[in-house]
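Weekly puzzle thread! Below is a chain. First person to post its structure in token form gets bragging rights.
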Amino acid sequence: MNIVIFGPPGAGKGTQSNLIVKQFKLHQLSTGELLREEIKNKTELGKKISTIINSGNLVSDDTVGNLIKRYISDKTYKNRIIFDGYPRNLIQARNLDKLLSQYNQKVDIALKLSVSLEVIKRRILERKSLEKRADDSEEIAIKRFVTYENNIRPVIDFYKQSNLLKVVNGEATISEINIEISGLIEGIKG
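Winning reply:
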């Protein structure tokens, strides 16, 4: 089973992905982690990615697609991937579908964590006092939220048209969200 989970920055995708990975013995594929791994390992690609990110630009869909292809083509992960925060746009959603079908796989469910900007701001302020992440400021949070919401709409429609989209109340407690998500996954596992 392959799962897509998405929601605005601060929605709790990572937290829920970690729980789902353990419960359903899946592998979490976070594009951010893949990019950071390339940079950390100082690969040729990692150096290019670092330059792109440091100049404030986004890494191309092709680059991200190639990193994801490594995962999808690996039999270890076949039909056992949770895509955390990917796809972020319609091109990526279509590319993911094509890539998966090349390896006789598909997305089984797309989970959208629905969270308001007010809740995101509150969470970021709480997280800021705990972790001090460089990207945690209210101003940045608002900008990222708006950008995310504008870019993700076509992806939501894409999965809605495929009857794969399930909207989850991302404002509930971590355990309530997890119970809801687990129920949805169990429902498609049959």
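Puzzle host: Confirmed. Bonus trivia for everyone else. The chain has one domain: 3-189.
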